[in-house]
Amino acid sequence: MMPSRFFLYLTLVVLFQGMYSLKGQESYEEKLNGVDHSISMVFIEGGSFIMGSPKTQQGHFGDEGPQHEVTVSPFWMSTVEITWDLYSLFVSREWDQYQVVKSVDSEVSVDVDAVSGATTPYVEMSFGMGTDNYPAICMTQLAAVKFCEWLSAMTGHFYRLPTEAEWEYAARAGSSSAYSFGDDINVLGEYAWFEGNSNEKYQKVGTKKPNAWGLYDMHGNVAEWTLDQYVPSAYSKRKKGIENPQEVGDKVYPKVVRGGSWMDAPSRLRSAARRPSSKNWKKRDPQIPKSKWWHTDAPFVGFRIVRPKQIPSEEDQKKYWNYK
Amino acid sequence: MTKKKNINRNEGESRRSFVQKTALATSAILTMPLGVESMANVQGDKKLKLALVGCGGRGSGATVQALTADENVELVAMADAFGDRIERSLKGIQEHFDGEKKIKVKEKNRFVGFDAYKKAIDLADVVILTTPPGFRPYHFEYAINNDKHVFMEKPVATDPVGIRKVLEMAKIAKSKKLNVVVGLQRHYQSKYIDLKQRVDAGAIGKIRSGQVYWNDAGVWVKKRKPGQSELEYQMRNWYYFNWLCGDHILEQHIHNIDVANWFVGEYPESAQGMGGRQVRNGLDHGEIFDHHFVEFTYPSGAVISSQCRHIPGTMSRVDEVFQGTKGSLEIGKGEITDLEGATQYKYPKKWGEDANPYQVEHDKLFASIRSGGVIADAENGAKSTLSAILGRMATYTGKKITFEEALNSQLHLMPETLTWDSTPPTLPDENGLYPIPTPGKTKFI
User: Fold this and answer.
1) Per-residue pLDDT tens digits for A48-78
2) Longest C-alpha distance within chain B, in Å?
3) Residue A6: what pLDDT?
4) Chain B contact set for A124 (CB, 8 A)
5) Is B355 on the interface with A (CB under 8 A)?
6) How close, in Å, is residue B209 to chain A by CA atoms?
7) What is the DSSP letter of B422?
8) Cβ of B217 and A91 within 8 Å?
């Protein structure tokens, strides 16, 4: 797999060198003006991998097959899940004055004032599980998408949610086993927070072992939003070697979350496991209309962000940020 | 005094036995329909007409729950101070049912203005009262005087004048056998009911102390818009004005203070505390504090620390915790421990497995109306509201104040009558800032 990924990378470099300013393939810290926080972004070389799981895998569910080869273009991914420290800056919008001045290096033209903001929730959305360096939870996919747009406006770098394919590619980190470290669930606790060790709450991000590509908590802690509409039969329609697949859809539900959470049994944490979002995640929202921004009943869902190496056109950027 | 402050334990009892009665009544209906007619105040299966007074997000949500609770309920009237809120609410309710139920409210039955509530209530059998809390006593009074069953949100008043009104009407509602459910929905949440039964059965002994919390980042703010009158601005941004909202110790933290009252089994005898506005002190933040810390002392000697804070970036927690002579209870965790800290009981249901209490409160309300039961939440609603007002009085004045003093206080925040030409009870100075209470200077009234 390595050689093909490398070959693809070379091809991309050759293809796009003239059209895009390449930032190199180094990992970097996205330092945020005016606050203490930074986001650690690891570079993920593009490549091919086998998406999905075999029927023989313990816990395999029908929507994980058939297995198929997928090629993914290079991107950076945040090494940890987005934390409340950062997410609450988006909710409060009290940090907007620190937006970077747009320059020739800006990958985006969006102005922060134009980004719609999540409402302040009436109920306390961390449910007492902690906020300092803990993953943000309970946001809708729309809210996670708008966070990406907001962060892009703030930093000048194009950020978005990962596609399902990118997510699984990164979670596998070159592996083809159930988990990035192998198949032995007795090892899971070294890498992940799940039902068996989480003490009924999420935990600080990045406190377990990372996978081979330096990504923490891909298995467990909080399940993570992807861009894709959940289509159970999606894999059966894909051509071999499909590039950058994404199930685009207008429906608010179901979208796909990946990775399993602190509330889940091990099988839900597998690299291939897919979970559809549901209207029920707003069951106890006492307001009508129910919030577009918060899932009162999804304390197990968070997200992480990616920055593709190849920067999409302004029009395509907007599609990733949920503009119709 | 103790007698007055004792929570009527029978209320909980009757609610439980009511469920059994409902089941019995239902089977009675099936077997001998004529028997039902002879029961007092029974609505049988006739169509129940519903009116919504106060068409915000919560009122619209409560309406959806009422329409879901019972097949044969029709929303016939809506009232709000603002026409745009009625239209948004109706659209939200219609979209929720997405054609499953026809929601039609005749245009002539959508009433706008300060007296709109009367016209809407007149048309209904059951009313939902979900305006900002300052109005509640007067809307409740009108509903009960006109023999309506009521769902009303907490808190049920913002000042003692309003509390006394609600207490008076609570008695009348009971004597008229009208059902009144108050949106202190923890009373309708199985986890709380289960843990309360265990505490009553002695699982942690006698409660000696406790901590109750509503600490988070705060709620919405509505900025002033050009062309708005001062009254309209305050009505739109009502959370930040005491005559309408009562401060967040009342509007939100009442839930946790109410749980303390419920679990201790008494209302507080006195309170003292501190508070202020450290962070949330801008032009759109009206006159309320952003933090309160109150020590409530109960007739039995139990002391409950109550903290509520609306400050982003600080520790978040909404919970209730109690220590008794034999052990402790953490409601968030659903865990009872002994004096050594060993787990004695863990509430078995996982996150989200409990029935939605916002729905349960309406299920019970309508089942009770149908079967001729009487749910009487108003008295506890008023006394728990007063407990929170007592806490606010303590933090605003910096004095120790008793429940009796608060109950008899002449503080009157809510104007008797309002029109769009009225001057609101609080006004900004030349810099746009409102008078803020100062402990040690603000007088107890």
Assistant:
1) 999 999 999 999 999 999 999 999 999 999 9
2) 71
3) 53
4) 214-217, 316-318
5) no
6) 20
7) S
8) yes
Q: Per-residue pLDDT for B25 more than 90?
A: no
- Residue ranges of alpha helices (H) inside chain A are 2-16, 84-92, 141-155, 164-172, 188-191, 314-320
Neighbouring residues of A155: CB distance < 8 A, sequence distance ≥ 6: A30, A32, A100
Q: Extract the tokens encoding A197.
A: 């060790």
Across the range B23-37, mean pLDDT stands at 39
Q: What is the pLDDT of residue B350?
A: 84
Residues B289 and B227 sit within 8 Å (Cβ to Cβ): no
CB contact under 8 A, B220 and A283: no
Amino acid code (one letter) for B256: N
Give the list of residues 6+ apart from residue A74 with CB closer than 8 angstroms, or none.
Answer: A9, A12, A25, A43, A44, A45, A46, A308, A309, A310
Q: Which of B61, B185, B316 sits opposite A128 (nearest CB)?
A: B316
Q: Between B4 and B56, name the one with better pLDDT.
A: B56
Distance CA B295, CA B310 (A): 18
CA angle B29, B32, B35 (to 5 degrees): 85
The pTM of this model reads 0.88
The torsion of the CA quartet B127, B133, B134, B137, rounded to 10 degrees, works out to 40
What is the predicted ipTM?
A: 0.83
Using a CB-CB cut-off of 8 Å, the residues of chain B touching A119 are: 220
Shortest alpha-carbon distance between residue B362 and chain A (Å) = 12
B32-71 in b/e burial notation, b at 16+ Cβ within 10 A?
A: eeeebeeeeebbeeeebbbbbbbbbbbbbbbbbbbbbbbe
Strand A274-276 relative to strand A255-258: parallel, antiparallel, unpaired?
antiparallel
In the prediction, which pLDDT does A123 show?
87
> What integer pLDDT is reported at residue A101 of this predicted model?
86
- Nearest-Cα distance to chain A for B60, in Å, is 5
Counting as low any pLDDT under 70, the low residues of chain A are 1-24
Contacts of B215 (CB under 8 A, 6+ apart): A124, B307, B308, B309, B314, B315, B316, B317, B318
